[in-house]
Amino acid sequence: MYTFSNKLKTFSIILIILGLVGVGYGFMTSHKSFEEVEHLLAEESHHGGGHGEEVTHDEASHGAHASVDTHGEGQGESAHAEVDEHAKHIKHVQHQIANRPWSALYVAAFFFMMIALGVLAFYAIQIASQAGWSPVLFRVMEGITAYLLPGGLIVLAIAFFADSHLFIWLKEGMTVEGHENYDKLVAGKSSWLNKPWFFIRGLIFLGGWVLYRQFSRKFSIAQDTAEDKSNFKKSFRISAGFLVFFIYTESMMSWDWIMSVDPHWFSTLFGWYVFASMFVSGITVIALITIYLKSKGVLEFVNENHLHDVAKFMFAFSIFWTYLWFSQFMLIWYSNIPEEVTYFVTRFEDYQLPFLGMVVMNFVFPILMLMNADYKRIPWFVVMAGLVILFGHYIDIFNMIMPATVGDRWFIGIPEISSVLLFAGLFIFVVFTALTKAPLLVKGYPFRKESEDFHY
After folding, report:
1. Are 420 and 7 in contact (CB under 8 A)?
2. Contact, 144 vs 289, CB < 8 A?
3. Which pTM was predicted?
4. Mind listing the pLDDT tens digit for each residue in 317-350?
5. 17-20 long-range Cβ contacts below 8 angstroms, 24+ apart
């Protein structure tokens, strides 16, 4: 049985505490007054920042009075309209700054939840396909998927309390004709995008995933001491059924939990795109935890061939992610339909570094580092590639959420780093606690011997 070391446990608790402090600081500093935001915009304008064309409130007011004096009442009304427009812009920036800590928390929470969900899908595929190489890694996968329930509930809780800070369609009056916030397109989607139905769907998705995880784990442990293969057969059947459920619910989850932050935009490829990101991130974490455990003298039955195969999946699904990323980007960019292309225009204008940087981290780096078969067998090399891949996919989720919630007010600072520390600490604590609950090698699994002797 594996023992969760005090050093690692303390490390995870320290991460959680540091994360909570930083997240709290992020929320405390996110509420700016109208005057503070106005001063901020004036400073940016003075230093030639992103708002250089904006007119300060005082300048606009002065312009209004001058217009009345020199050009009559009509010109004055025009200037007053300009002042109103400027005030609206300040309030808009004020909301974007207030949205940032919620968005940072949500990005990190979703990222770690999707790792557990990606591993659960990979685990189900291994059982349903009766793979012979992977059973020695099953308990590592089961440990990682233990995070799915708390991680998923946290994502839903953040979405519930963040409300319109994350999802603009939850803003008051969006579906009420005649209201100043009325949006015809959002109103047309209100039968799907409404708060009760959103959370009912979320609980159904999460309930189905966790139910499969609980039963597959139960059958896996029961098979250790069973005299027949009945638990293996049950696990095989529910894995096949789960994969059908998963492919539908994962797509709908990606529409709800990510794509709906910008309800004016949609992509029919989005569910697959999110799946590719979650799958490669999950497989990467399997590799990292396996290498860590092996370095501590456990998992002695895992050899370099197993590591090579996991690294092959990291390499393959990095290419698969790139294929989907390019397919979505190329088709939308080439067709140049305004309501579709706005998604990429926003990211090119305000998020160029993270948007193009993630392509380097998620494709260029893995393909150069993991193409050689020998490199896939070197633990430190796989760890290095894995850390870059994980950071790249965090930035991928960051790019999906932030442009719709904070616009050009993004920055990777205390709220973002603290949120990652918080959920990384919680993830380590939950996963490594789960690893102590059962032997790290499946005993009665039919393909165990084949997996232990795996080599080529």
Report:
1. no
2. yes
3. 0.90
4. 999 999 999 999 999 999 998 888 999 999 999 9
5. 17/425, 18/418, 18/421, 18/422, 18/425, 19/418, 19/419, 19/420, 19/421, 19/422, 19/423, 19/424, 19/425, 20/418, 20/422
